[in-house]
Amino acid sequence: MKILRLHSTGTDVRKWQLFLLGEGYSLQVDGKFGSNTERHTKAFQQVNGLSADGVVGPKTYVKAFEKGMPFLTDPGDTSETSLNWPPSPEFNRLNNLADKQKHFGKFNFTRVANSDNINITCNWYRDKMTSINIPVIKHFENGSSSGNVPFHNKVAHQLKGLFEAWEKEGLLDHIKSWGGTYNPRLMRGGSNLSHHAFATAFDINVAWNGLGHTPALVGQEGSVRKLVPLANKYGFFWGGHFNSRLDGMHFEIARVLPV
Predict the structure, then answer these.
(1) For a surface tag, which of 77, 159, 171, 196 has the fewest beta carbons within 10 Å of its beta carbon?
(2) Could you tell me which residues come within 8 angstroms of residue 219 by beta carbon, excluding any fewer than 6 positions away?
(3) Are 12 and 5 spatial neighbours (Cβ–Cβ below 8 Å)?
(4) Are 54 and 169 members of one domain?
(5) 107 and 204 fall within a common domain
(6) Minimal CA–CA distance to 67: which of 208, 232, 251?
(7) What is the pLDDT of residues 97-126, one digit of tens each?
């Protein structure tokens, strides 16, 4: 990692911006260290007892490492408690907009000013959404009091089936909090539509698996890693396997399975 400051550019800047975004700071992830990134860097430094000079140097990196910013990799370690477990599935994400629209429908929208949120300006929600009941969600922190959650009607059976499978295998105690499904917005810090806008994703254990942070390892509080293999079987791709922006709270549909 390089020392970063105002006017720096590149991959390291983008990683730093993703980390700040996961810490709750609102900024565009564009790989350009502008005045907004500098301002949020100073805020991060100040909150964490560092000299607020806006320069990402050794002390700032150490604090970021302590808080989960990914630095180290060990490709040779594939044990269950390693950074590399579980392994990535054999299928890829539905990442580009055309793929999402092909499977889940196209909608018109307007962007909310100074926000990642959008307003859908057609009947897509009415035509494509359904409400499914997953009773266990009532017991998670921030869970729906009714257990009802909105999801795309084409893949709602996959979400319901996944939670039933997790329950059957005794894995639900790994879920501590519920982060929701449908959320009409762009990807955080970007310009592409989020899977949440299509109601084809859900988040869990947000506090332990922040965007741009190393997802909690097996055995650590809030880890979701043991949930991933079954999620893959039900067509979900885990955000901890994203190449460019780790998002360990996040599960999104990557394969549409028959009912």
Answers:
(1) 77
(2) 81
(3) no
(4) no
(5) yes
(6) 208
(7) 999 999 999 999 999 988 889 999 999 999
In this structure, the answer to whether residues 47 and 101 fall within a common structural domain is no
Q: pTM for the complete prediction?
A: 0.90
| Rounded Cα gap, residues 212 and 46, in angstroms | 20
According to DSSP, residue 113 is labeled T
Looking at the DSSP assignment, which residues form a beta bridge with residue 130?
151
- The span from the CA of 63 to the CA of 67, in Å, is 6
Print the domain residue range for 16: 11-66
Structure tokens at 183: 């959320």
Both tokens assigned to 134: 């997953």
How distant, in Å, are the alpha carbons of 129, 131, 189, 193, 242 from that of 107?
Answer: 13, 19, 21, 11, 25
Q: What does the pLDDT look like over 214-233, one tens digit per residue? A: 999 999 999 999 999 999 99
Cα 114 from Cα 160, distance rounded (Å): 35
227 three-state secondary structure = helix
